Amino acid sequence: MIALVTGSVGPAGFVLSAVPVYLATGFVVGALTWRFLPSSVPYYSAVAALVTVVGNYLAGTAVWLLLAPVYGYEVLNPYVGADPPTSLTEFLGAFFELYPLTVLTVVVWTIWIAVPLSLAFSYVYERSRSGE
What we know:
Blueprint: H1 2-6, H2 11-36, H3 44-71, H4 88-130
Helix pairs in contact: 2-3, 3-4
């Protein structure tokens, strides 16, 4: 566990640190989607599932990048070979520089499992709500 917190486990540490973040943001985004998406939307379950996946990618990546300095991951420092960001402005600049590429990377690595799982959970939840 110490290796994970210090970031010394390499790529496995990045993946393992992202899992709890994406699970938590996925739950929050899913709950908000089911609460606020109008039920008059055609194919409600499928649309809710896809909105949840997209929202989770955006929110989860933002939270994970904001937490990354806590873990001290060197790979998330765009100032390789220079001093890490010391001011809020430098940190936000680094965040917005990394955010689009990080979202794309996460999507490419996980889309094959995120969409089917979200559709399955959406279907089960919709059936449980309708009492079937």
